[in-house]
Amino acid sequence: YGNWPGEVRRPKNLEIWQQVGDDLGQRMGSIFTRGLKESPLVMALGADVPLISEEILEDALKKLQQNDALIGPSEDGGYYLLGFTRFQTGLLDELPWSQAGTRQATEERLREQGYTFEQTSTLYDIDTPDDLKRLEQEACYEATRHALKTLKADS
Questions:
Q1: How many other CB atoms sit within 10 Å of the CB of residue 14?
Q2: For 68-78, how does the pLDDT look when each residue is reduced to its tens digit (9 = 90+)?
Q3: What is the pTM of this model?
Q4: Nearest 5°: phi and psi at 65?
Q5: At residue 114, what are phi and psi to the nearest 5 degrees?
């Protein structure tokens, strides 16, 4: 599970679930399956999308409550958010991960399996140094601005 950072206090009721599977789709699928046993909906968020906002998450929640699935599209053809109110084993297996066609392939799979779905706002994720430069121009959160300054000072 890794070590919880010493300067951050771990929430008391936080559970850590081990992902199971050979590829990203199988690993996410294991978490979606487990999550839906305990909750009426589940969402996975990318950790490399610093401009996600409370409004986007509220929109995602609202749309997901009306559909089987929800996608938060990334500008690069993938997605930063994926949510489900129902999930079948194997749904995300063998998709082309981390490619420009990932979102399209996922949407095609959802349609093939009869899932209703919507999208929330399109954002960009941080994959390259150019993405970091863009973020530096657009950083609207104090913590993000501070982290970028620290990265620049350390390089």
A1: 7
A2: 999 999 999 99
A3: 0.82
A4: -65, -15
A5: 80, 25
